[in-house]
Structures are given as structure tokens and as C-alpha cells.
Amino acid sequence: MTPTRTITARKEALGTKLCILAHHYQADDVVRHADILGDSLELAQRIDGLDAEHIVFCGVHFMAETAAILARTGQKVHIPDENASCVMADMVPAALAEKVLTALNRDGAHIIPLTYVNSSAAVKAVCGRHGGSVCTSANAKTMMSWALGQGDGVLFMPDANLGRNTARALGIDPARTMRLDIRGQGRFVPAADPSASIYLWPGLCAVHALFHTEHVSAIRRDEPGALVLVHPECSPEVVAMADGAGSTSYLIKAVAEAPAGSTIYVGTEWNLVNRLALRHTDRTVRPLRTALCSNMAKITEENLARTLTALDTAEPVRVDDDIAQPARIALQRMLDACR
Ligand code: 13P
Ligand code: SF4
């Protein structure tokens, strides 16, 4: 049987016992089997209302882990390839996050840890234990404002670009943001300084780092009427040159709302841009340059079919309770702040 037919047959056999979630960066072959397609905020928000016993998450590992933390007792979350990690999430080890936070707070300051959802459950647990929370690119402004209201400053992890772009969007003076030097197990991290309010972990997304100011300059020169829209994981320099910057859901909406006949360059993962181009045939949608997330691409129709075939015996995504509990507190603070 082909993977397509296996998936269709398993979906029919399992009915409401199964729900397949997919992130917008998944390939079309996978997306067409999804019951729910969304960005990372939308997918996290949907977990609460799901009745299915088996949740199969087509995305990267931190997303499946987040679903496992938010799922009810007895629900099982599966990911078709356990090795689909996120390069950015891997840039913040939880033990180092804890050390850096302790170093910032050593003179009695109360710095609030705020992690981008692109991080491990253990990092979310650090945030939960220290009065912090989680954000996605769709609610980063809301959550950064929230965190600023809880203490003397914010340790923003792991995406320095999203942190800087969000601080700028909130009107925070760039002089009040400080990029941390985390080398030597955090040995060079200073105690919190009253002149700073945002401390940036020096992580980035290797996919969005592929978009450079030269790409935008070339469009401005050759196609001055074209719109340029980018994800806030791009550098602040690229964001400053773009006509708009926002989360995956923002980009989808902005392309849909652009005038028919217009040309729109989108600086984000290629699968999403390609889908938007196919959906909006009355306008020209192009990638700012081709940028594929190789980890998102690890989920295929083949391993989705294998996962669905072995659902009853497969080991689901597990998060130990001592991590899941504080990580859930951090996530719940986000969900409550963004209802
Ligand atoms: P969204 O939060 O926009 O879904 O993005 C997730 C992601 O991994 C972007 O690289
Ligand atoms: Fe992680 Fe970047 Fe891939 Fe998103 S696009 S999952 S941030 S590596």
C-alpha cells in the first residue's frame, strides 16, 4: 500500500480517536493529511479542546513536547520523527539558562525569564519555576510587556532577533537591550543593571538567518512596487527594511489582504511561501530567497504512515513530571494572557 493510502485507511479506522496536527512549514504531502494546520500559537491553543486519544504532531520536537505537556492524562502525543529538532531550541540548554538567570539576579534583582516556545520543556520549566512564561512569534509583544510588568527586567531566550525586534516594536530604547555573552558556562554574565531591561540570549534560527539586507535591497532596486514581508526571526536590519514583519499567521493574513495583482516577497520557510503562491494565483508570491527548514522536512508521508500503523505500540512523547509541571505553569501563563 502507498503511504497515502495507509494514512487514509488509518484515519478512517481510528476516526475521532486520532487527530493530526501540522505546522505551516510542513510539506504539502504531509499537510493534506492534517486535521488542524496552524502556527505554533494556534496549535498550542488547540490542544486543550481535543478529545482524541492519539495526537500526531507533524512539526518539530519542541512543538510535540508542548502538546504532550498540555494534553490531558491518557492522551498520547506522537511525532513521526523524534529527530526533528529545532536548531534554535538546541541553543539553550536548561542548566545554562538557570545559571545565567542566577548570575543576573545575584545582586538581588528579579529578572523574569521568558522563553520563545522554540525551546525544550526543561527551559520552559526554568521559566515556570522563576515566575516567567513562554511566547510565540504571534504574541511576543504581549508576553514581553507582561514579563516587564512582573520584575526588574526580562531574560529573553533563545532568539536574540525576535527579542530585539519585539523590544523595538514595543518602543524600548535599543540601549536598554543587552546581548549576553554565555560562553564559559555563563561566567561573563554580569549582574542585572538598572540601565537595561531586556537581556538577550544569543540564539538564532539558521533558516531565517539566510535572509539578508542585500535580498531586500535587490527587490527595492529591481521591483520598487513589490511588498516585502518577513518573519521576526529575521535580523532587525532585515525587519527594518521590510514593509511588514510578523508571525506565520500574520504573514498568511498579510498576503491574503494584499491587493490582487501585487507582487509580494515573503521572508520565511519555503513550504509556507510556496503554498501561499499556489493559493493566491491573482497575485505573485515569491520567497525572499529559498530557505527550507531541514528539521521540519524530516516529517514525511512515509514516517507519518509508519507512525499511524504502530500507534498502539509506539512510545509516545514523554516529559517527566518534574519538568512537565513547571513547564505547564509557564505555558498556562501565556495561554491565560492571550485568551
Ligand atoms: P511560528 O511561531 O510563526 O509558527 O513560527 C515557528 C517557527 O519555528 C518559526 O521558525
Ligand atoms: Fe527552528 Fe528555524 Fe526550523 Fe523554525 S525554521 S523550526 S526556528 S530551525
Description:
The chain is of the alpha/beta class and 339 residues long. The protein has three domains: 3-85 and 296-318, NadA-like (Rossmann fold, 3-Layer(aba) Sandwich); 88-205, 3-Layer(aba) Sandwich (Rossmann fold), CATH 3.40.50; 208-287, 3-Layer(aba) Sandwich (Rossmann fold). The protein has 15 helices and 13 strands. It has helices at 3-14, 28-31, 40-47, 61-70, 94-104, 121-129, 140-148, 160-169, 183-186, 213-222, 236-241, 248-257, 270-279, 301-309, 321-337; strands spanning 18-23, 36-38, 54-58, 76-78, 111-116, 133-135, 153-157, 177-179, 198-200, 227-230, 244-245, 263-267, 284-287. Helix 1 runs parallel beside helix 14, helix 3 (40-47) packs parallel to helix 4 (61-70) and helix 6 (121-129) packs across helix 15 (321-337). The chain binds 1,3-dihydroxyacetonephosphate (13P) and iron/sulfur cluster. Iron/sulfur cluster (SF4) binds next to loops.
List the keywords:
339 residues; alpha/beta; Rossmann fold; five-stranded parallel β-sheet; 15 helices; globular; binds 1,3-dihydroxyacetonephosphate
Low-confidence parts, pLDDT < 50 over ≥5 residues? none
- What's the main sheet like? 5 strands, parallel
CATH class of the largest domain: Alpha Beta
Strand content: 15-25%
Bound molecules: 1,3-dihydroxyacetonephosphate, iron/sulfur cluster
The number of domains: 3
Question: What coarse outline follows from CA principal-axis ratios?
Answer: globular
Name the average pLDDT: 97
Strand order of the largest sheet: 6-5-7-9-8
